[in-house]
């Protein structure tokens, strides 16, 4: 199939979800085109959008639907924020969560210099994340900040014995949930939408409040064998269910 996306295959991992999905289509044997001879046109949240081609299916994957307003005029829309967002989107919209790249999101052979690592934005948008990071930093050796995309991102995530994430929104399912499971032992603020995608304490460690997080960090950091088991189980589960190839195949079912 000839597929036109809004991200050049030459962009590399800096194109984020748009590039990873484009690469997944290519890895599945489809041709990525830039002209108007296409069998599918799809825009993915994160890059400038391309226009409709007459008489060609026109799709949209709104990965962060929980912070966006619906975009009309697509033949099929997929959203990745949370299933609750479906109420705001046109009838027929499909919930399709974030994913990870099996080639780029994997544990790297680097020293575990830190107890806890959080690679991602820590600007003023993430007030609650920053508050919890300060609590962690008071008790544990913490690495927090932004790294480059692709392998450098995974290298940063691999420098901690465990990975921490605090996502925006009470019901949001973030990209880092899947990347974290693919790379290491993830601590994620719990919401029940996660239950459809992974098993708590088998694929990740849920936490419910500050006290619960601290207790669990102390426990698991003193039981490295349990961390290692969760990492193995999480990676296996993610590879079986949550790669960008899984998402690409699901999208193509609607062409």
**How many separate domains make up the residues?**
2
Within the CATH hierarchy, at the fold level, what is the topology of the largest domain? Rossmann fold
Derived from helix and strand composition plus strand pairing, the structural class reads alpha/beta
Radius of gyration using CA atoms only? 19 Å
Show unreliable segments: none
Identify the CATH homologous superfamily of the largest domain: Glycogen Phosphorylase B
Hey, roughly how much beta strand do the residues contain?
15-25%
> What characterizes the major β-sheet?
6 strands, parallel
* Spatial order of strands in the largest sheet: 2-1-3-4-5-6
Report the span from N to C terminus.
Answer: 10 Å
Structural shape: globular
| N to C succession of SSEs | EHEEEEEEHEHEHEEHHH
What proportion of the residues is helical, as a percent range?
25-40%
Give the overall average pLDDT.
95
Individual helix count: 7
The CATH architecture name of the largest domain reads: 3-Layer(aba) Sandwich
**The CATH top-level class label of the largest domain:** Alpha Beta
């Amino acid at each position: 199939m000839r597929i036109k996306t809004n991200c050049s295959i030459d962009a590399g991992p800096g194109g984020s979800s748009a590039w990873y999905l484009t690469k997944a289509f290519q890895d599945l044997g489809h041709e990525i085109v830039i002209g108007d001879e296409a069998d599918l046109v799809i825009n993915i949240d994160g890059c400038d959008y391309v226009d409709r081609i007459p008489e060609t299916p026109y799709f949209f994957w709104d990965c962060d639907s929980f912070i966006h307003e619906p975009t009309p005029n697509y033949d099929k829309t997929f959203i990745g924020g949370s299933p609750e967002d479906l109420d705001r989107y046109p009838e027929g919209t499909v919930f399709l969560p974030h994913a990870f790249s099996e080639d780029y999101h994997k544990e790297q052979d680097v020293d575990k210099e830190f107890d806890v690592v959080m690679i991602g934005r820590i600007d003023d948008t993430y007030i609650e994340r920053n508050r919890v990071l300060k609590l962690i930093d008071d008790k544990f050796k913490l690495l927090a900040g932004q790294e480059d995309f692709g392998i450098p991102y995974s290298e940063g995530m691999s420098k901690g014995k465990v990975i921490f994430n605090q996502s925006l929104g009470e019901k949001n399912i973030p990209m880092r949930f899947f990347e974290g499971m693919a790379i290491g032992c993830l601590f994620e603020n719990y919401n029940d939408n996660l239950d459809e995608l992974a098993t708590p304490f088998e694929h990740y460690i849920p936490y419910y409040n500050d006290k619960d997080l601290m207790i669990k960090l102390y426990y698991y950091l003193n039981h490295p064998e349990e961390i290692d088991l969760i990492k193995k189980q999480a990676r296996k589960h993610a590879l079986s269910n949550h790669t960008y190839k899984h998402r690409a195949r699901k999208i193509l079912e609607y062409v």
